C-alpha cells in the first residue's frame, strides 16, 4: 500500500483518484444484444445463454420443484444464518416506512404526499465464483415490504443449467415472484423489453460486471430506471490509537478481496497506527484464499497520515466513501461532520462485513464518490412519492388571484384562464 | 382531438403513445461542447453565449446590484403572489422532513438512517418566451429547506445581457447562492465540470429544451446526478357528468399551450361529457394568445370513452400521467387505485395551474410514463440517506456466527476473518 504523509489539499484529487474502467468499447456489443432481444425475445436470450454460459436451456424459468430441491440442499446452519439476517434487514427496512404527509397550506387548499410501490421490479444477481445470495436479501426484502407486485429475479445458470441453491432459497423466502436462468447483458435486455418468458419491469436493481453495468445504463434510455450507477467497491477507515490494528487490517482486506479494482484507504492522525496496520496486512494477507485479488487491490490503496481530525474529515467528505469505518476517540466529531458516505461503521466491534450480511442495513451502496448525491438502496428505492391536492371553492378564492398573476407574468394565458373561469363561476 | 370509443386493452399501447423526439442527432454537438467546456471553461462558455444568445458578456456572474435593480422592477402585486406561493410551497415541503430512523435489530446491534443534504446543487431555468420563475420556487425552496450549502442557478441572458427580473427576484428570496448568465448546453457543461466562475455541482435540476435534456443525460456520465429524465409535459383528466365541461376544457388547454409536443388526454365513461368538452375546447381555444401552439398539441391528444371506472383506472395506470385530474363522483375509487401519476388534482375547483404555481405541491414531475418509477421533485430530491451501525461486544457475539457462515458460503474468507478475529478476542 502506498503511504502518503500530510498531503496538501491541492493533492487530494490525485490521491483520491479511483481505479476507473473504460467502458466505451463494450457499448457497441451491449447495444446490439439489446436490439436483438427487443426483436426476438427468448430465442435470442437462449442463444446468448448457450454462447456465454455454455449451456442450452429448454426453459428459462426456474420451476417450483427446482426451488424446493434447492431449498432442501441448503444446510440448516446456513438457513438459520440467512433467516437471522433476513429478520434484521426486515426490521430496519420496515422502520423506514413513512406515513402520508398532509398539509392544508391555506384554508381550503389541502395537499398531501403518499408513497406507492413501483409495481414491477427486476433484480439481477451475478453468477461466477461468489454466489451473492446476500444481495437477494438486500433487494427482495425491501421490494416486498414496499409492496411491489412483481419481483423478478435473473441470475445466470451454471454449466449444468442450474442456479446456486442458496440463491434460490433466499429468493423464495424473500418473496421473489419469478426466477429466470438468464445472466449478463441478455438478462438486463430481457427485463427492459419483456420477452415471451420474462416480464418487462420498471426498475432494475443489482450488481454485475462491466457488461451488466453498461447494460443497465443503456436500459435507462428505454424508460427503465436503475438503482444507481455502479463502480468498484471501496472502503475508507478513519482510525486513531484507540483502534485495534488487527481488526482494521482485517476490514481493509475484506474489502480488498472483492475484486482487483476494489479500493481501500486508511486515514489516520497516528503514524504509529499506520505502521502497525501495514504490518498486520502483510501478516493476514498470506492466509487468504483470494490473496492474489486482495494483493492487487491493495496496490490501488493508500495509508494517509493527516495532521488532525478536521483535515481528516475534509478529505473523507471529498472522497465520499461507499463504506466508512470510524474507529476513533473523537467519534462524535466524525459522525456529526460526515456528509458523504454510503454506510458508516462505528467502533472496534463493527466490521464492514456485519453490514454486508446481517446487521440490518443495506449493502447496495453508492460507489465512485456517488455518496455525494445518491442514497444507498433503502425502502424508498422501491417506491415513488406522488402528490395530491384538493381545493375547495373557498380555497380557489384564496389562491386564485396569485395564480392568475403568476401565469400572466409567465405568458401562459390558458393557465390563467383555468382559474379565471372558476373564480367567475363563484361570483 | 381524436375521439376513441371503447378501445380494447390490446390497442392501449398504440393509443397511449406519446409524441416522441429523436435526439441521437444532437448528441454529437452536445458532446463536443462538453469537451470544450471541460478544457477551456469560461472562455468557451462566453463563446457559445455570443453564438447562441447573441450577446457578449464580460462577466457571467449576476451582480448584487443587478439583483437589487431587478427586485425593484417587479410589481408589488406579482411580489405578493410569488410570496404567497413561496409560503405554501415551504409549508408543504417542510412537512416532508423525516426524522432519524433508529432500530436496535438485535441487542447490541444499533442501526440508523439519517438524511443529509446534497452539498452542491445546480438549478437550470430556461429563457425564451416564458420566464419560468415559478420553477425557481419549486427547486430552490426545497434545496434551501434540505440544507444544501451551494445552490447555483444558471439561466440564459437576453440580447441585452440580462436575466428576467422575476427570475432574479425569485432566486434571491428563495436562497439561491450564486446566479450565472449562462444557458443551454454550456450551462449544464459548466455545472458538470466547474469553470473559473461556475462551481461544479453534484446534482442538476430543472427543465429545458432537447439540447438541455441531452446535456443533462450526458452530465450523468461525469458523476453528476440529475432530477429525472425529461419529456414533453402531459395531462390526463378522468371526468364524468359531475365535472364542469368548461373547467375541464380550460385545464386541457392550459396543458396544451406549453408546447406543440404537449399531450392531453381525457378519459370518461360519459359520451355526453366528451361531446360537451370537445365543443368547449373549440370555443376557448380561439381566445388564447398561444392558440397556434395549443392547436398543434391538441392534435396529439385524445378523448377516450371507456365502459366503466375500472377500465378507466387500468388504462390510466398503464399511461402513468405526469398530471392527473380526477373529477368524478366515484372519487375515492380513483384515489385508492391510482398507482402511477406525478401529481393528482381532485374535483372541480382544483385546476392543474394551482399546482403549477401556488397550492404548495411541486410542479417538477415525471413525464413520459416515468411516474411508474420516479417521484416528482420533493424535499428528499435534495438529500441522500446514509446508514450507520454501531455494534457492541455483545452485539457481535449475537450476529458473528451468522456473518461467518454467510461469508464462507459466498466464498469470501476475508469477510469471515474480520468477524472471527473479533470473536476470538472476546473469548
Automatic annotation (TrEMBL), chains A, B:
* This protein's UniProt keywords: Amino-acid biosynthesis, Histidine biosynthesis, Metal-binding, NAD, Oxidoreductase, Zinc
Q: Which GO terms describe its molecular function?
A: histidinol dehydrogenase activity
Pfam families the record matches: Histidinol_dh
Q: Return the broad EC class.
A: oxidoreductase
Q: How is the cofactor bound?
A: Binds 1 zinc ion per subunit.
What EC number(s) does its UniProt record assign?
Answer: 1.1.1.23
Chain sites annotated for binding NAD(+) = 124, 186, 209
Cofactors: Zn(2+)
User: Binding residues for Zn(2+), per the UniProt record?
Assistant: 255, 258, 356, 415
The entry's active site is 322-323
Show the Gene3D superfamilies listed in the entry.
Answer: 1.20.5.1300, Nitrogenase molybdenum iron protein domain
Write out the catalysed reaction: L-histidinol + 2 NAD(+) + H2O = L-histidine + 2 NADH + 3 H(+)
Residues holding substrate: 233, 255, 258, 323, 356, 410, 415
| Pathway recorded for this protein | Amino-acid biosynthesis; L-histidine biosynthesis; L-histidine from 5-phospho-alpha-D-ribose 1-diphosphate: step 9/9
Similarity comment: family membership? Belongs to the histidinol dehydrogenase family.
Q: Read off the NCBIfam families from this record.
A: hisD
Q: Tell me the function of this protein.
A: Catalyzes the sequential NAD-dependent oxidations of L-histidinol to L-histidinaldehyde and then to L-histidine.
Q: What is this protein called?
A: Histidinol dehydrogenase
What organism, scientifically named, is this protein from? Flagellimonas okinawensis
Amino acid at each position: 500500500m502506498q503511504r502518503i504523509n500530510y498531503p496538501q489539499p491541492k493533492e487530494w484529487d490525485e490521491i483520491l483518484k479511483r481505479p476507473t474502467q473504460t467502458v466505451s468499447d463494450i457499448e457497441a456489443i451491449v447495444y446490439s444484444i439489446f436490439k436483438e432481444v427487443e426483436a426476438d425475445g427468448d430465442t435470442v436470450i437462449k442463444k446468448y445463454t448457450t454462447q456465454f454460459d455454455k449451456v442450452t436451456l429448454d426453459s428459462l424459468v426456474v420451476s417450483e420443484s427446482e426451488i424446493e430441491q434447492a431449498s432442501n440442499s441448503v444446510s440448516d446452519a446456513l438457513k438459520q444464518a440467512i433467516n437471522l439476517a433476513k429478520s434484521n434487514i426486515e426490521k430496519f427496512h420496515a422502520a423506514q416506512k413513512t406515513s402520508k404527509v398532509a398539509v392544508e397550506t391555506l384554508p381550503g387548499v389541502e395537499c398531501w404526499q403518499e408513497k406507492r410501490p413501483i409495481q414491477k421490479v427486476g433484480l439481477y444477481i451475478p453468477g461466477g465464483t461468489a454466489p451473492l445470495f446476500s444481495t437477494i436479501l438486500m433487494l427482495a426484502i425491501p421490494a416486498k415490504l414496499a409492496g411491489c407486485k412483481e419481483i423478478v429475479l435473473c441470475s445466470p445458470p451454471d454449466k449444468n443449467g442450474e442456479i446456486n441453491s442458496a440463491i434460490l432459497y433466499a429468493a423464495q423466502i424473500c418473496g421473489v415472484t419469478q426466477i429466470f436462468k438468464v445472466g449478463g447483458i441478455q438478462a438486463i435486455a430481457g427485463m427492459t423489453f419483456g420477452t415471451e418468458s420474462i416480464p418487462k419491469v420498471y426498475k432494475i436493481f443489482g450488481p454485475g460486471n462491466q457488461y451488466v453495468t453498461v447494460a443497465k445504463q443503456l436500459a435507462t434510455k428505454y424508460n427503465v430506471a436503475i438503482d444507481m450507477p455502479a463502480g468498484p467497491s471501496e472502503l475508507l477507515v478513519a482510525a486513531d490509537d484507540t483502534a485495534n490494528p488487527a481488526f482494521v487490517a482485517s476490514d481493509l482486506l475484506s474489502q480488498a478481496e472483492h475484486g482487483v479494482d476494489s479500493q481501500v484507504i486508511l486515514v489516520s492522525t497516528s503514524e504509529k497506527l499506520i505502521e502497525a496496520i501495514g504490518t498486520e496486512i502483510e501478516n493476514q494477507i498470506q492466509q487468504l484464499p483470494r490473496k492474489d485479488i486482495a494483493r492487487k487491490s491493495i496496490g490501488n490503496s493508500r495509508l494517509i497520515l493527516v495532521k488532525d481530525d478536521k483535515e481528516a474529515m475534509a478529505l473523507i467528505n471529498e472522497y465520499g466513501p461507499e463504506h466508512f469505518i470510524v474507529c476513533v476517540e473523537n467519534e462524535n466529531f466524525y459522525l456529526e461532520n460526515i456528509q458523504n458516505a454510503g454506510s458508516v461503521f462505528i467502533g472496534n466491534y463493527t466490521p464492514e462485513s456485519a453490514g454486508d450480511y446481517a446487521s440490518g442495513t443495506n449493502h447496495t451502496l453508492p460507489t465512485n464518490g456517488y455518496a455525494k448525491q445518491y442514497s444507498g438502496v433503502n425502502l424508498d428505492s422501491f417506491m415513488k412519492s406522488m402528490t395530491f391536492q384538493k381545493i375547495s371553492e373557498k380555497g380557489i378564492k384564496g389562491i386564485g388571484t396569485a395564480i392568475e398573476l403568476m401565469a400572466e407574468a409567465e405568458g401562459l394565458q390558458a393557465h390563467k384562464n383555468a382559474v379565471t373561469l372558476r373564480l367567475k363561476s363563484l361570483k
